[in-house]
Amino acid sequence: MEERDLAGVCGLYCGLCPRFQSKARSRCLGCQLGEQHSYCSVYRCCVIKRGLFTCADCDEYPCERLLRVLGVEEGLDSFISHKPALPNLGRIREVGLEAYLEEQRERRLLVEHLLDHYNEGRSMSFYCRACALMPPDLIRQAMDEVEKVLTSQQVDGSNLKARAKAMRATIQDLASQAGIDLKLRKKK
Can you tell me the distance from the alpha carbon of 57 to that of 49, in angstroms, rounded to the nearest whole number? Predict the structure, then answer.
């Protein structure tokens, strides 16, 4: 799979989506790879109707359809945070698709490391959100801090649940200190 395949049409980066990172049979390969996303009105408009790669390429960006699907007016998310979508599209316009994808690749590799070493089976969505919303240096800082705790044996490194709990708490603390809300925005 090429990195370009992970560039979501709407600005979400598919490599940081729990449905992409899943090992289940229902795993999503990303919206650039197929008809499975033909139900999405943004995909239909951008790719099928206009022949564009992402909404960043559109003369009408940001359009009402994109803003509605991303829940911008209501400030809502679905199973994945929509917060980075518009900034991501802005970044594509600013630095170009290839430079943007290199930045996102770094985030994807961080989430894959977290999933490989600190996922007890319940942390995938949290790690994906954290890597999408936090600067990569804060994620690396969390990894370094947890590694020190494991090395000093303050946390049992052989216990995956303990490692995951320490990582989640460290990421949450660093996010809070940076003023980053990692919770999904849902209707009340």
Answer: 13
